[in-house]
């Protein structure tokens, strides 16, 4: 019997080895060749594509069109499947890969008809931009074809890798609209529903101005002076209100008067969801223009031919999401002005499912509380996407960059730009509707302005402020007066921006290390008031909370990896919000909606409730507000115990907020986790502080630069260049990122080189 078991185990071991060998053999077939020489009839002159030790693509070309081809070639080799997912997601075509499991998401995306809009936009582009997109697409397709075998993702799905088209690059821009601005119209929709349920008094109450405001002119919005509305037919069943990720970013700058070199200095870290591969791709473009050599270094977005954030050594630029109000819901008086169109959604088995979409002259139509509303969103208009961002590459000064701001077709961003002469400036760059009055509630057909069809050209900006300091962090940047014109499209509450501002005023001179320290600032200033409240509540509740009070007294006032107290305070705030606003959430859930898009607005309203303690907002389960507040903490302990066990050491913030960056397929095939995922790392940082980090969310890059002094510039990214798990560049740079290493922006030692000659 023992011998039989022995041979069975040996046989099983051999099978596992063979299976592992087969997997690695198949994967090896799809590794791109990073060295050698080839030919192409898609370029005018030879190009060279080098990779340094991090896998950064260093492009050498004789003109910008050939540089676009070469960047596309590198993207096609390293990131084609990622690019395919982005275009399919924006177009609502994921069902071709994943079948009926993706139908719901595809219908959600087809509502916006972004494939059709991309086709129309390409047709309207200037000839030079069409040529550039075509050159890039040729590069993508030839780079992908060079690999020889489709990547393992296509083998697993059984899907076909379709060629890249010019319109797909515009879909990549639209994918960023969906990521960065969907909350704007979702927020308005939730507020319309709340007005229907509770009246405008409730809308005003939950959207009162933040206690934390950090506009560049330090202006304050008028404080809310209304009362607390009564709840109607309160349903007190405890409900968890989902958190909305802080999609946005930090950036700040100082003028040359605050640096040793006299050059201005920029910091930029864009906050996005993490996955493998990470969204950005390091690249440097080298090509001549008008007899002068251009060198642009930064990060590109695979699928688009531009350096999104970077420097040409004369200027440097970075972005944070602007969160201006770029959407309105139009209340339709009747269905006579609407019509239906059919959107067939192809499945991976060759069949299709039809999606009937209602349209109107204002935009696609959705029912809200049983009434028809049309969505007018900036992404639906002709000025939403273009190729003007590429002009930043040739800007020689801050003024050159500011002049481009209104021409660039991207989701509106806070452009922060500096130059080698010491200038620094901020301005909103991207598409902004010219309508003068934004609405967070529905607008009538009669009040819908024709100016919605035009891009706003007049925008506020700040250049070289007297203090020499500029900052943004997704909260209101414009003055209180300009806020009435541009509106709130889902601003962050401002705690993060205020902390950055205050840190900048603590020093009189800065270098790259100072900025890097600020990017990693995890002091819990925002939660200090919540910490004080929790300690007060537990101290009054008796000795049963002594263990937790000890941890709260040692909480370190930071989102530090070993802090248990920080976890308790963070979770307590969430439970208080859940408890107080469950009646609203339950009503909205019945409408297939949620408070999630407005949760970040609730902070001032929560504190007003805590201070005034109205009887109507007391859950009948509790005898008084003291019990209700302590009850929220009891729920925190129950949930932490269920999730992490009853040992408080397992509640340390670094474990609760552990950084987990996963490949999309690892979730469906757990056996591949060790091969596909990045290593886990202890959590460091959180939401309302400069060092933003969640379990699979945070600073997707950390960029610090002084134009003219790029030898000290930093670009840290939480993942590698290649999407291929056997590539030497799959995880390159990740360890530097999690250990706070100063990863250089400029290419390091060249490890690989491809030359592609033109076929004339």
TrEMBL record:
Q: Which Pfam families match?
A: Penicil_amidase (PF01804)
Respond yes or no to whether keyword Hydrolase is given for this record. Answer: yes
Q: What InterPro entries does the annotation carry? A: Ntn_hydrolases_N (IPR029055), Pen/GL7ACA/AHL_acylase (IPR014395), Penicillin_amidase_A-knob (IPR043147), Penicillin_amidase_dom1 (IPR023343), Penicillin_amidase_N_B-knob (IPR043146), S45 (IPR002692)
Its keywords, alphabetically, are: Hydrolase, Zymogen
UniProt lists the family membership as follows:
Belongs to the peptidase S45 family.
How does this polypeptide assemble, per the annotation?
Answer: Heterodimer of an alpha subunit and a beta subunit processed from the same precursor.
User: What protein name applies here?
Assistant: Peptidase
Q: Whose protein is this, by species? A: Pseudoalteromonas gelatinilytica
């Amino acid at each position: 019997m023992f011998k039989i078991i022995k041979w069975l185990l040996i046989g099983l071991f051999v099978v596992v080895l063979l299976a592992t060998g087969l997997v690695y053999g198949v994967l090896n077939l799809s590794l791109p060749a990073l060295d050698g020489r080839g030919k192409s009839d898609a370029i005018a002159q030879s190009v060279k594509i080098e990779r340094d030790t991090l896998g950064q693509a260093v492009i050498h070309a004789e003109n910008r069109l050939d540089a676009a081809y070469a960047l596309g070639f590198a993207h096609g080799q390293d990131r084609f499947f990622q690019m395919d997912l982005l275009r399919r997601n924006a177009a609502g075509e994921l069902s071709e890969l994943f079948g009926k499991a993706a139908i719901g998401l595809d219908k959600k995306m087809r509502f916006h008809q972004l494939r059709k809009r991309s086709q129309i936009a390409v047709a309207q582009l200037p000839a030079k931009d069409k040529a550039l997109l075509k050159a890039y697409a040729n590069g993508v397709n030839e780079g992908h074809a060079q690999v020889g075998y489709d990547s393992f993702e296509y083998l697993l799905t059984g899907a076909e890798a379709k060629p890249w088209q010019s319109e797909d690059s515009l879909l990549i821009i639209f994918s960023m609209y969906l990521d960065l601005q969907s909350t704007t119209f979702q927020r308005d929709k939730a507020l319309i529903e709340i007005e229907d349920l509770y009246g405008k008094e409730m809308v005003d109450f939950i959207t009162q101005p933040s206690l934390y405001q950090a506009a560049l002119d330090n202006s304050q919005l008028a404080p809310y002076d209304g009362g607390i509305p009564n709840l109607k037919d309160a349903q007190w069943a405890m409900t968890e209100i989902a958190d909305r990720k802080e999609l946005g970013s930090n950036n700040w700058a100082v003028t040359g008067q605050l640096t040793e070199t006299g050059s201005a200095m920029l910091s930029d870290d864009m906050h996005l969801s993490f996955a493998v591969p990470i969204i950005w791709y390091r690249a440097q473009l080298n090509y001549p223009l008008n007899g002068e050599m251009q060198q642009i270094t930064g990060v590109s977005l695979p699928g688009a031919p531009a350096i999104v954030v970077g420097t040409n050594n004369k200027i440097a630029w970075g972005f944070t999401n602007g969160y201006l109000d770029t959407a309105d819901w139009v209340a339709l008086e009747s269905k006579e002005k609407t019509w239906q169109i059919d959107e067939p959604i192809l499945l991976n088995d060759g069949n299709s499912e039809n999606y009937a979409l209602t349209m109107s002259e204002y935009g696609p139509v959705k029912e809200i509380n049983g009434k028809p509303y049309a969505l007018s969103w900036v992404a639906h208009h002709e000025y939403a996407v273009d190729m003007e961002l590429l002009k930043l590459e040739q800007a020689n000064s801050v003024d050159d960059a500011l002049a481009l701001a209104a021409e660039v077709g991207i989701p509106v961003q806070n452009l922060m730009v500096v130059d080698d002469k010491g200038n620094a400036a901020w301005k909103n760059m991207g598409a902004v509707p010219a309508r003068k009055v934004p609405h967070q509630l529905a607008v009538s057909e009669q009040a819908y302005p024709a100016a919605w069809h035009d891009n706003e050209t007049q925008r506020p900006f700040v250049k070289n402020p007297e203090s020499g300091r500029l900052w943004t962090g997704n909260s209101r940047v414009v003055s209180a007066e300009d806020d009435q014109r541009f509106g709130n499209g889902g601003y962050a509450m401002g705690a993060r921006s205020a902390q950055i501002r205050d840190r900048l005023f603590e020093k009189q001179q800065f270098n790259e290390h100072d900025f890097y320290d600020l990017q990693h600032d995890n002091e819990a200033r925002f939660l200090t008031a919540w910490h004080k409240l929790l300690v007060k509540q537990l101290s009054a509740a008796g000795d049963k909370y002594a263990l937790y009070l000890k941890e709260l007294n040692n909480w370190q006032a930071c989102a530090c990896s070993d802090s248990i107290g920080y976890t308790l305070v963070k979770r307590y705030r969430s439970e208080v919000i859940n408890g107080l606003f469950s009646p609203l959430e339950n009503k909205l859930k019945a409408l297939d909606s949620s408070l999630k898009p407005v949760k970040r607005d609730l902070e001032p309203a929560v504190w007003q409730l805590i201070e005034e303690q109205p009887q109507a907002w007391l859950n009948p389960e509790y005898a008084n507000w003291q019990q209700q507040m302590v009850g929220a903490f009891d729920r925190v302990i129950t949930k932490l115990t269920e999730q992490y066990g009853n040992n408080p050491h397992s509640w340390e913030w670094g474990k609760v907020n552990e950084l987990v960056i996963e490949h999309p397929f690892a979730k469906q095939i757990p056996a591949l986790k060790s091969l596909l995922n990045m290593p886990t790392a202890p959590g460091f940082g959180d939401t309302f502080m400069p060092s933003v980090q969640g379990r699979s969310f945070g600073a997707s890059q950390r960029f610090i630069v002084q134009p003219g002094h790029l030898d000290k510039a930093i670009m840290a990214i939480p993942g590698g260049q290649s999407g291929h798990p056997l590539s030497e560049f799959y995880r390159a740079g990740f360890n530097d990122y999690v250990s706070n290493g100063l990863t250089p922006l400029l290419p390091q030692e060249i490890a690989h080189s491809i030359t592609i000659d033109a076929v004339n």
